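User: Design a sequence. Structure:
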């Protein structure tokens, strides 16, 4: 996102030339007087939601995205055709020229003040914004159950009130350290094997998936119930710390991950009965939350019509489904999209640990 001063400057100069400005392509913002309060609220909510979704996906919304990677404050402005005008606008090149000249001339006065403005914000409209001090507390409340559940499991897993039962009902970090190293090793190997070693994406994903789904065979023999409880606690602590840290860099991505993963994580740690029907639901949630599944789902949504035509040829369906994962790696290599490193270096180790715990 560009610095708030740059956005405010652009909005003010466009307003001086009577040029309407909208964000996220939401033409509803041109209506300055909605019918009622609810209509205005829903309009602003839609605009803010589009901004959060765009920031979470990491996809470029304009050419300015490449400059942002070099810490160059920039934004993209493009013209929209309002419905009912027949493609003929009332804004001429002279008005645009005056506005662009004003932006360039004003930047000289803003260069030394960019660091005093907002870098983290959400725009519900072109004239109002939500600062980081307002949207961070709700994220903290969303992640709070993870912290509380982690502390409860930690107290349970390290309890030594009864020395005679300490060896049975308690565990140590040394007992779960190999499982943490295995989970993170598989994830790191998948990411670095494809990005830096140039290994085939299908091969690296296949090997990592096989290893991840095979770990429960070892865990069922060498992991105790107390070890599983302590591993749950460490897993939840890692998730909470990771989400809080990610929110300081990309709030939108942290918010989307928290909304999806926090209920699954808390629910997964609460189910312990091996014969409970709810356990089947837990297994389904774990499978759906597999970090590679959303990336494949992205490709399916973008190429739905093509995939329907390829249904008889299942090999082609698999290849096209993997295009979403491959495209995410390309975006990471080209302009540093965070979606892939977050999925493979943060979410995948957590998922592997949860998958191992599920079978203990």
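Assistant: Done.
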């Amino acid at each position: 996102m560009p610095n708030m001063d740059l956005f405010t400057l652009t909005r003010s100069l466009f307003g001086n030339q009577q040029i309407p400005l909208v964000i996220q392509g939401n033409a509803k913002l041109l209506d300055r007087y909605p019918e009622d309060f609810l209509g205005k609220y829903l309009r602003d909510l839609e605009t803010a939601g589009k901004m959060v979704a765009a920031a979470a996906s990491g996809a470029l919304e304009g050419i300015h995205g490449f400059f942002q990677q070099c810490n160059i404050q920039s934004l993209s402005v493009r013209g929209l055709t309002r419905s009912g005008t027949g493609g003929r606008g009332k804004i001429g090149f002279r008005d645009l020229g005056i506005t662009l000249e004003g932006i360039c001339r004003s930047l000289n006065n803003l260069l030394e003040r960019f660091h005093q403005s907002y870098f983290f914000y959400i725009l519900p409209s072109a004239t109002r914004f939500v600062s980081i001090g307002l949207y961070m507390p709700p994220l903290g409340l969303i992640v709070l159950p993870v912290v509380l559940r982690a502390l409860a499991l930690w107290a349970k897993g390290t309890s030594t009130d009864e020395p005679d039962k300490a060896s049975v009902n308690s565990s140590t970090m040394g007992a779960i350290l190999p499982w943490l190293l295995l989970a993170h090793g598989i994830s790191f190997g998948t990411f670095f094997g494809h990005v830096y070693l140039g290994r085939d994406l299908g091969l690296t994903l296949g090997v990592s998936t096989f290893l991840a789904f095979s770990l429960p065979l070892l865990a069922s023999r060498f992991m105790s119930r107390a070890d599983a409880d302590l591993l749950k606690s460490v897993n939840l602590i890692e998730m909470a710390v990771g989400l809080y840290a990610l929110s300081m860099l990309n709030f939108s991505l942290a918010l989307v991950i928290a909304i999806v993963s926090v209920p699954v994580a808390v629910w997964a740690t609460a189910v312990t009965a091996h014969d409970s029907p709810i356990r089947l639901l837990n297994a389904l949630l774990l499978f759906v939350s597999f970090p590679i599944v959303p990336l494949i789902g992205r490709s399916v949504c973008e190429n739905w019509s093509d995939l329907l035509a390829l249904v008889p040829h299942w090999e082609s369906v698999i290849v096209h489904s993997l295009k979403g994962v491959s495209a995410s790696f390309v975006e990471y290599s080209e302009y540093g999209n965070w979606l892939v490193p977050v999925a493979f270096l943060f979410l995948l180790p957590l998922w592997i640990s949860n998958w191992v715990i599920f079978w203990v």
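The mean pLDDT is 77. The longest strand covers residues 121-122.
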